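Researcher: Let's do a round of design. I'm pasting the structure tokens now; please hold your answer until I've finished.
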């Protein structure tokens, strides 16, 4: 059943929950929201062990948006969600959803454990290329922004070709303006922030991903104070829910 909370700045965040047990919040990647996400199947599997919460990040799906955007606003959204559904919570982030989870833990929210699948992090203190990427995303709209984003992050050409003219592609176009939000999040992640995340963390990558993604998972694991790293069978930038769920349950319990 869908419900709505109000974040600190008045933004309405839509969410749903299922199952019973400790609270586990799933955080979507760039361009994804509950109606356009691989996390639905994962939520159903994990609901056997957890109260699983899925939500639409601001500006996506059934959630509203309140300008101007800043990454801190998404941490406030998550804080309001944890207060409502009950903490402490464990957080699972997929791709850029990992950035939200890491910021939340570093900010001192009631976060018990983290699991991160392929966090897209280059932990430099200054990253002009990322700022330029954000600026370009802000200039683009609709399908042009989606095409630029997916091409720039390294989606294989054959995968990208298969995505065009699909419902998934169309759904991403509806939230294309939020792709710049995820890029802004990437600008804010550095080694110092990672060292302030003290929650036990499981960092995962897919064995089918490219070396840039697997390398980032290794670097993040090394910088986090309490992290372990596992590589799981999967495709490019993704692991099947049936493979992922038992690994997450074992670590997060």
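Researcher: That's everything. Go ahead.
Model: Designed sequence:
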């Amino acid at each position: 059943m869908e419900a709505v909370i109000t974040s600190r700045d008045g933004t309405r965040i839509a969410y749903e929950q299922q199952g019973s047990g400790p609270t586990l919040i799933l955080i979507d990647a760039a361009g994804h929201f509950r109606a356009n996400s691989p996390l639905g199947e994962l939520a159903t599997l994990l609901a056997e062990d957890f109260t699983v919460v899925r939500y639409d990040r601001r500006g996506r799906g059934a959630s509203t948006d309140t300008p101007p955007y800043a990454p801190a606003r998404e941490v406030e959204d998550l804080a309001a969600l944890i207060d409502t559904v009950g903490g402490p919570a464990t957080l699972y982030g997929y791709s850029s959803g990992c950035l939200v989870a890491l910021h939340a833990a570093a900010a001192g929210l009631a976060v018990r454990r983290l699991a991160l699948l392929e966090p897209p992090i280059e932990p430099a203190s200054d990253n002009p290329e990322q700022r330029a990427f954000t600026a370009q995303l802000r200039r683009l709209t609709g399908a042009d922004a989606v095409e630029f984003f997916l091409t720039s992050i390294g989606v294989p050409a054959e995968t990208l070709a298969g995505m065009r003219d699909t419902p998934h592609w169309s759904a991403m176009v509806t939230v294309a303006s939020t792709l710049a939000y995820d890029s802004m999040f990437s600008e804010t992640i550095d080694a110092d922030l990672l060292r302030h995340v003290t929650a036990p963390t499981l960092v995962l990558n897919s064995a089918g991903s490219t070396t840039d993604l697997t390398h980032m998972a290794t670097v993040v694991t090394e910088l986090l104070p309490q992290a372990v790293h596992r590589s799981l069978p999967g495709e490019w930038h993704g692991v099947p829910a049936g493979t992922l769920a038992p690994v997450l349950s074992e670590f997060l319990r």
